[in-house]
Specification:
With about 120 residues, the protein is mostly helical. The chain is built from 5 helices and no strands. It has one domain: Methane Monooxygenase Hydroxylase, Chain G, domain 1.
Amino acid sequence: MPEDYLPILAMVVVVIGFAAAALVVSAITGPRKPNPAKLSPYESGMPPFGSARRRISIRYYLTAVLFILFDIEIVFFYPWAVLFRQLGLFGLIEMAIFVAILLVGYVYVWRKGGFDWD
């Protein structure tokens, strides 16, 4: 059994060796001419302003999490739609329960003000 894993071990050794060699070669042969223009941060072609450590409102992250949550829930509709005829009434009832749970979560977030941008 252990000899079956020998090709995988060889591949891991080759990958680690290649990565290490690439890092060493680029460190040795790479140009080193630092100047203030190269060392300054690049922000879409505009000169940076303000502190990079500014605080971002928690609403930004909450909105992102809600978007991902409801977006992933929509992904579950595709397999159901593909197998709709095979699932029959059972599939319809299960999806209705799923949509009801999703709707309860949506209403809860709406009432708590999760969608307000103020």
